[in-house]
Amino acid sequence: MDLRDKLRNPFVQQYILEILIPLAGYFWFDWTIEIIALFYLIDQFASEFSFLRKLKSVAAYHQMSFSRHLIISAFSFVIFLLWKV
Fold first, then answer.
1. Rounded CA gap, 48 and 72, in Å?
2. What pLDDT sits at residue 84?
3. Residue 58 Rama label (left phi>0; alpha psi -120 to 50; beta)
4. CA 8, CA 29: separation in Å to the nearest integer?
5. pTM here?
6. What is the Cα–Cα distance from 25 to 9, expressed in whole angstroms?
7. CA 56 to mean position of chain CA atoms
8. Using CA atoms, how far apart are residues 62 and 65, in angstroms rounded to an integer?
9. How far apart are CA 28 and CA 12, in angstroms?
10. Which stretches within 29-82 are classed as H helix?
11. Which of 3, 18, 34, 59 is the most buried (most CB within 10 A)?
12. Is-contact 22 40, C-beta < 8 A?
């Protein structure tokens, strides 16, 4: 697998953009560290929300209980978010 094939992977593209957007904001748009941290926090909330929506669909398809997974996921997200505060 050459470099071109690796760069076509959507996950690689997502990670590259998650790194380049804050760097571009810092160097060219005068973003502060607080704005960059807010960017990462909003990105994490969106990822968590998207994951839970997908999990709900999978649980509904397999006739599984979703509430237990929701509670565990939300609790662990809050714990990791507040870990160093």
1. 12
2. 65
3. alpha
4. 28
5. 0.66
6. 24
7. 17
8. 9
9. 23
10. 33-61, 67-81
11. 59
12. yes
